[in-house]
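Protein modeling request. Please complete all fields; requests missing the sequence field cannot be processed.
Requester role: graduate student
Desired output: 3D structure, token encoding
Chains: 1
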Amino acid sequence: MKITKYLSLAPALAVLATTPLMAQDERGTAEDKKPQAEELPLPTYVRAPIGAKAIITNKDKQRLGVVRDHVIDRRAGKVLFVAVGSDDKKDEPARLVPYDRFTWNDVEQRLVLPMTMAMFTALPEYDPKKLPSIPGRVTDGKPEASDVEDVTVGRDKPAGEVRNASARMNHTTLAASNLLGSEVMAVRDRFATTRGLILEPNQGTIAFVIAASDANKDDPYIIPWRAMTWQVPEKKDMPGHFALTLTKDDLAKAPTLKRADIEHLNKDRKAVEGIFGFYKLIQPIAKDKSDANG
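Delivered output (294 residues):
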């Protein structure tokens, strides 16, 4: 079995621009030393696209299928793979597509997969019971086996060489579909139930979880992924759950979404900062996709 590590993260290269000293006057040198106030871009937030409306096409507008699921790194909230399959042929297996092969069309608010149909159909089939693990990851005190076959279509690898993914049940990744309806637990108490996921598509990360309780069905809570940990079930047939380190009293004034509307998150920096601030987290800054993957 060929063993590869999917997440081969290349370190970002710092490009230093040097200017001859003689070309700088004293004023320019002094100004260069002053800290520059930078207006940082707001991330783009969308509901994690799953279902018939989440259509995937290639650059030639050829329809490849719809999003059936996401495979997520449970610690970082990173979307590693997207399961893309037919929306009308339910028995036809979905294909497991590495997230970094997509581009995000901000105008049309959807993912685009620059692959031909032949390349797409050569990808491994998605099996929600056998999620690909992250090689080398240590989970719950035990090293995870690097037992995932090559599931990528590299820029220099012909699509026909892609093998089917085969991995045991593991604790490093989660299927997004299994998270919906899961419990969000405060310290010693049930707090809410997961209703949806909010994706930052340029970084490929799940930024927030939408969770509702009996008391706030119309205006659900919005909780940063990084504020919670996913508790792996002790037994295979038991459900997992999200856990917060706050009590229900601490969460009495937790941020909520008015009528579950996320549009204002893309327009109001203070609203986003307020959410992260409540959970004592620093707001992540949006980066180019190449930086996010690097």
